[in-house]
């Protein structure tokens, strides 16, 4: 296949469309045997790192709180026109209420995790 401008030209070195699909042309030795057992590694998850739900909830609340701080105090959002100066001032004032609320939520969620473990 050769790209020439906006059109494609087929090359004789490439396989034609008359061949069998790759899943039909497997050699018999590569096919799975009916009595073959599944290895224990096949049952392991692909991504072995796991995070608990309380940890993810605390992280989400922290990102929400940091978003208020960023939008209210950085000045970048009003400078690029994403929010107005009045909205930025409102976010600055509301950050004084949101940040303590988020800190309370973060600590209360962590307290629930310890209670669930039986500590």
Automatic annotation (TrEMBL):
<feature type="transmembrane region" description="Helical">
    <location>
        <begin position="55"/>
        <end position="73"/>
    </location>
</feature>
<feature type="domain" description="DUF7887">
    <location>
        <begin position="52"/>
        <end position="112"/>
    </location>
</feature>
<dbReference type="InterPro" id="IPR057209">
    <property type="entry name" value="DUF7887"/>
</dbReference>
<feature type="region of interest" description="Disordered">
    <location>
        <begin position="1"/>
        <end position="42"/>
    </location>
</feature>
<dbReference type="Pfam" id="PF25397">
    <property type="entry name" value="DUF7887"/>
</dbReference>
<protein>
    <submittedName>
        <fullName>Cytospin-A</fullName>
    </submittedName>
</protein>
<feature type="transmembrane region" description="Helical">
    <location>
        <begin position="93"/>
        <end position="110"/>
    </location>
</feature>
<keyword id="KW-0812">Transmembrane</keyword>
<keyword id="KW-0472">Membrane</keyword>
<feature type="compositionally biased region" description="Basic residues">
    <location>
        <begin position="19"/>
        <end position="34"/>
    </location>
</feature>
<keyword id="KW-1133">Transmembrane helix</keyword>
């Amino acid at each position: 296949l050769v790209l020439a401008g906006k059109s494609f030209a087929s090359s004789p070195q490439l396989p034609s469309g008359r061949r069998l699909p790759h899943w039909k042309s497997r050699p018999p030795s590569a096919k799975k045997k009916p009595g073959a057992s599944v290895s224990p590694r096949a049952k392991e998850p692909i991504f072995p790192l796991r995070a608990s739900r309380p940890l993810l909830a605390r992280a989400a609340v922290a990102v929400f709180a940091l978003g208020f701080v960023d939008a209210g105090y950085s000045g970048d959002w009003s400078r690029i026109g994403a929010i107005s100066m009045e909205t930025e001032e409102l976010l600055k004032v509301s950050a004084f209420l949101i940040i303590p609320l988020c800190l309370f939520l973060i600590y209360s969620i962590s307290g629930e995790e310890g209670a669930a473990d039986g500590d």
